[in-house]
Write a structure and sequence with these properties.
The chain is of the alpha+beta class. Helix content is about 20%, strand content about 35%. It is built from five helices and ten strands, in the order H-E-H-E-E-E-E-H-H-E-H-E-E-E-E. A five-stranded mixed sheet has the order 1-5-4-3-2, covered by helices on one side. A five-stranded mixed sheet has the order 6-10-9-8-7, with helices on one face. The two termini are about 35 Å apart.
């Protein structure tokens, strides 16, 4: 039986912990394009790399994994030298993974509402609504986060039903609005500039964006859960984009 793409990626990521070389076969290393700027491309085979990493006693937990066409996107926890939370995106071609993006930050929290960066529902439902949910998230990010039309926030989020996993925030749209307004002495912490990709399966939608966080060039990965045409839950990671002079490959973050 052929495993679903997302299950093959679950096995691949778990092999970082186990050192098992078998799951690496899902990757076509001859075509593999790496978009993590801090990772060398082609200098070490993935099987050898994962076996080496496994000797450091890492812990890998794949919290959620979803499929969208030829893409898999996963929400993960890593415990290497420090605890991190990340999103991993893989593109498949002819049944094998040929391209990879990620966004990783230190695990923080719990937040003001007592929530961690990863808890909450994990299984996609409402698959027939995938495209409408994708369109809703695109509209929200482009209208509210990029264009700054904060008066439209209520069109997308009900204040009493919004569950927030960002470690700096709390539940409710009002907290999100204060953050987006830059209420702290007039300084806007979060500044979205451009949406690069939106991936969706059912009621889960991942948006990959670029902008600034505290005036630092950053990548934003935002995962939303949608219910009844509204955004009801949010997880994210924010990662600084290293200057080009420090990149270890030329493929770009996005």
């Amino acid at each position: 039986m052929v495993l679903a793409m997302k299950d093959q990626i679950r096995a691949l990521l778990k092999s970082i912990e186990t050192g098992d070389p078998g799951p690496v076969a899902v990757v076509n290393e001859e075509k593999y394009i790496q978009h993590n700027p801090q990772t060398h491309e082609g200098s070490e085979g993935l099987a050898a790399l994962f076996q080496r990493l496994s000797k450091t006693s890492p812990r890998v937990n794949i919290v959620r994994a979803f499929e969208d066409g030829n893409f898999v996107f996963a929400h993960t926890e890593y415990d290497f030298s420090r605890r991190n939370v990340g999103f991993e995106v893989f593109r498949f071609e002819d049944g094998r993974a040929v391209e990879h993006w990620d966004n990783i930050q230190a695990r923080l929290g719990p937040n003001q509402s007592g929530r961690s960066m990863v808890d909450g529902p994990t299984e996609a439902v409402d698959h027939e609504l995938t495209e409408s949910n994708r369109a809703l998230v695109r509209s929200f990010v482009e209208t509210v986060l990029v264009d700054g039309q904060l008066e439209r926030l209520k069109d997308y989020v009900d204040d009493g039903d919004y569950v927030e996993h960002n470690p700096r925030l709390a539940d409710g749209a009002s907290t999100l609005r204060l953050e987006l307004e830059g209420a702290d002495k007039g300084f806007r912490h979060i500044d979205y500039h451009h949406v690069h990709r939106i991936l969706a399966e059912g009621n889960f939608v991942l948006c990959v964006s670029e902008g600034n966080f505290d005036d630092i060039h950053s990548a934003f990965y935002d995962l939303f859960r949608v219910a009844e045409g509204k955004l009801v839950e949010h997880w994210d990671t924010t990662e600084k984009i290293a200057p080009r002079s420090e990149w270890k490959n030329d493929n770009g973050k996005f």
